C-alpha cells in the first residue's frame, strides 16, 4: 500500500489518539480498582487460571499485598461472549474475560448497556454498546427459558433498526449459555407485542441467523438455505459473521465459493480473497479442508495486515462444519506457505485483548509502508 506524506501524518495522528485512548482506558480501570477494590466490568482480559490448593508455607515464601492477591484475582475470572455492534449495525460477538460471579448471564448483559465504562471498553474495540443508557435488567433462567425484563428506557430507542439489533443481541448473548435455548421478553414488567418502532417482542425467541443479508424476493422459498460466512470488518481488527441465503447445499464448498464472491456491501466489510482471484476447488481430506485458488491469491500479502485477518476468516468459515479441523491453502495446485500460525484455528472469532493489538499492528503497518 502506498501512502503520501499527508496520509502518513494523518495515520500517525490517528495512532497517537489510539494510544492516548488506550492509556485513558487503563487509567480509568486502575482508578476504579482503587476506589472499589474490584475489577471493572470492562477491564482488559487476563488469562483464566485454576485456583491452587491451599498449602502451608514457610514465612519467607509467603506473599503479601498485591503480589499475594494477584493469583487469586486471576483464578476468579471467566470468559463470556458479549455482543456489540459496529458503526454499520453489524452485530459482533467478542469473547471477554470478566470476574467470576453468580449470575454471569446478567452481568454479561449489563456490559452491553450504554455507560461511561462500557462505552469506553467498546470503543477500545472499535465497537458500540446496544442497550440504551440506564436500562435496568432483571433475568430469570429456568428449564432452558430465560425471561428477561428490560426497563422502560428500551422504549425510547432511535429507530426500528436499533430496536432489532438490541433484541437480536440479547437473544444471541443469552443463547451462548448452555442453560438457555429460549428467550422471553418483558418490558417494564409487562408483556408487549412490539416496541415503539414496531419490533416484535412477544412470544419466545430462539437463536437465529446473525446479520442476515437482504434476501431477494425470488429467494423467498423453501429451497434456499442459510450459510454463515466470516468477513473482516472495515477496521481490520474484528471478524463479522454474516448469514447469506443460498440455493446450493450449505456445505463447506458452497461457503468458500460464497466467501470468494465477497461481501454484499464492500463499503462495510472487507473481501477475503484479492481482486481477480478465483476458486479452483475445495477438497476435504481426513478433516483438512484444502482450498485451491488461482495465482492472484498471493496478492493477499499486500493487505495492511499481511492478509492475516483474511486467512482467519477463511479458517472460521471452513471449521464451522463438522468433520473439518484445519485448513490448507493451495495456489494453482501448490501449497501456499503462510506465515507460521496464520492458519491456526482461533479460540474464538474475536477476543477482546487481541482486537486492540490487531488494530495497532494494522495501523503501524500502514504508517511505515513508505513504498
Distinctive features:
8 helices; alpha+beta; 4-stranded mixed β-sheet; 21% strand; 371 residues
Q: How much helical structure, as a percent, in the residues?
A: 25-40%
Please compute the radius of gyration using only Cα atoms: 23 Å
Q: Structural class given helices, strands, pairing?
A: alpha+beta
Uncertain segments of ≥5 residues (pLDDT<50)?
26-63
Q: Work out the number of β strands.
A: 12
- Count of the domains: 2
Overall average pLDDT: 82
Please write the string of helix (H) and strand (E) elements.
HHEEHHEEHEEEEHEEHEEH
Explain the overall architecture.
This protein has 371 residues and is an alpha+beta fold. It is globular. Helix 1 packs antiparallel against helix 4 (116-124) and helix 1 (5-36) packs antiparallel against helix 8. A hairpin with a 5-residue loop joins strand 1 (77-85) and strand 2. It has helices spanning 5-36, 65-75, 104-110, 116-124, 160-174, 252-261, 308-319, 352-367; strands spanning 77-85, 91-99, 137-142, 144-150, 180-187, 204-205, 225-232, 239-246, 279-285, 288-293, 326-331, 334-335. It has two domains: 39-48 and 68-205, no CATH class; 217-347, no CATH class.
Amino acid at each position: 500500500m502506498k501512502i503520501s506524506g499527508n496520509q502518513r501524518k494523518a495515520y500517525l495522528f490517528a495512532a497517537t489518539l489510539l494510544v492516548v485512548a488506550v492509556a485513558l482506558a487503563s487509567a480509568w480501570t486502575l482508578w476504579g480498582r482503587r476506589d472499589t477494590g474490584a475489577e471493572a466490568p470492562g477491564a482488559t482480559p487476563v488469562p483464566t487460571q485454576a485456583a491452587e490448593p491451599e498449602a502451608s508455607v514457610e514465612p519467607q515464601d509467603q506473599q503479601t499485598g498485591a503480589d499475594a492477591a494477584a493469583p487469586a484475582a486471576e483464578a476468579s475470572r471467566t470468559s463470556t461472549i458479549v455482543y456489540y455492534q459496529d458503526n454499520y449495525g453489524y452485530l459482533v460477538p467478542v469473547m471477554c474475560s470478566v470476574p467470576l460471579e453468580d449470575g454471569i448471564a446478567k452481568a454479561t448483559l449489563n456490559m452491553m448497556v450504554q455507560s461511561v465504562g462500557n462505552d469506553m471498553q467498546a470503543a477500545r474495540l472499535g465497537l458500540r454498546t446496544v442497550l440504551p443508557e440506564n436500562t435496568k435488567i432483571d433475568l430469570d433462567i429456568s428449564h432452558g427459558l430465560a425471561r428477561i425484563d428490560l426497563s422502560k428506557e428500551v422504549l425510547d430507542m432511535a429507530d426500528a433498526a436499533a430496536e432489532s439489533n438490541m433484541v437480536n443481541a440479547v437473544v444471541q448473548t443469552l443463547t451462548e449459555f448452555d442453560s438457555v435455548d429460549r428467550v422471553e421478553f418483558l418490558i417494564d414488567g409487562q408483556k408487549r407485542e412490539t416496541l415503539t418502532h414496531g419490533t416484535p417482542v412477544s412470544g419466545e425467541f430462539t437463536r437465529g441467523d446473525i446479520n442476515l443479508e437482504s434476501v431477494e424476493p425470488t429467494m423467498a422459498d423453501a429451497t434456499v438455505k442459510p450459510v454463515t460466512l466470516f468477513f473482516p470488518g472495515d477496521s481490520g481488527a474484528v471478524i463479522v459473521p454474516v448469514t447469506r441465503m443460498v440455493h446450493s447445499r450449505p456445505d463447506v464448498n458452497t461457503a468458500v465459493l460464497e466467501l470468494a464472491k465477497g461481501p454484499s456491501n464492500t463499503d462495510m466489510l472487507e473481501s477475503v480473497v484479492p481482486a481477480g482471484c478465483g476458486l479452483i476447488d475445495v477438497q476435504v481430506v481426513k478433516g483438512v479442508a484444502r482450498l485451491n485458488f488461482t495465482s492472484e491469491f498471493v496478492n493477499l500479502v499486500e493487505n495492511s495486515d499481511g492478509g492475516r485477518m483474511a486467512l482467519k476468516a477463511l479458517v472460521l468459515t471452513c471449521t464451522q462444519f463438522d468433520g473439518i479441523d484445519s485448513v490448507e491453502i493451495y495456489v494453482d495446485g501448490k501449497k501456499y506457505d503462510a506465515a507460521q500460525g496464520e492458519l491456526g484455528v482461533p479460540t474464538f472469532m474475536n477476543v477482546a485483548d487481541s482486537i486492540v493489538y490487531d488494530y495497532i499492528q494494522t495501523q503501524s503497518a500502514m504508517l511505515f509502508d513508505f513504498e
